[in-house]
Amino acid sequence: MKIIITAVSGLATVGLLWIFFRPPFGNNIVHLNTNQRVVALTYDDGPCPPYTDQLLDVLAKHDVKATFFMVGNQIKRHPDTVRRVIAEGHQVGNHSYSHPVLGLLPPSYVHREIERTDKLLRQIGVTGEIVFRAPILTRFLPVAWVLAKGNRAHVSCNVWSWDWTTQNPDRITKMVLGKVKPGSIVVLHDGKAINRKANRLGTVEATDRIITALKQDGYRFVRLSDVYN
Length: 229
Ligand SMILES: [Zn+2]
Fold this sequence. Notes:
By secondary structure, this protein is an alpha/beta fold. It has helices at residues 2-21, 51-62, 72-77, 79-87, 107-124, 141-149, 169-179, 201-216, 224-228, and strands at 28-29, 38-46, 67-70, 91-94, 154-155, 159-160, 184-189, 220-221. Strands 2, 3, 4, 6, 7 and 8 form a six-stranded parallel beta sheet that branches. Strands 1-5 form a two-stranded parallel ribbon. Bound molecules: zinc ion. Zinc ion (ZN) binds at residues 44-45, 95, 99, 135, 193.
């Protein structure tokens, strides 16, 4: 009997943990819904001059549009950079207000973090749908719950550049090119939420190389809303 009780409570715990960390409801977008050779480049944690501007120069050189998941307190510091991102035709998304480990916080806190950044983006002139990505991709139960209530998707990715661990452009480029396939959503960083001293020159250089290589391979680049709506 004791063994059965232990086994049942063990299974219940695993089940609850599973539901918490992998909520089985809501919409979690991991890749674009297409078989065509298209890729969405996404940049998190900005706006962060001078790297965001350098990145915009590279994207403009290649005539490529991308999606920027921005952090509210950075938007407040650098509104002109946000305006440039919008003016140059890129998509802007919400990446919380202060980049906490959002998935471990109560729903009311999650809601406030998302709302504050939505509001800032609207004030700056973002129109249409604002896509959302949780910091550190923590789409845990509180985040999934708040998003589902607002009928809103979570935008994840299926290609990690690992550019938050290295700024070696060779390694970032190799990592991304080795994983990209049709419909991939690639996560890179123009900002530096965790390591504030990090520079993003490696990401800027890698972006130049990634775009050049993928274009030669027949890929084109889209913003998230170009494909999944
Ligand atoms: Zn982030």
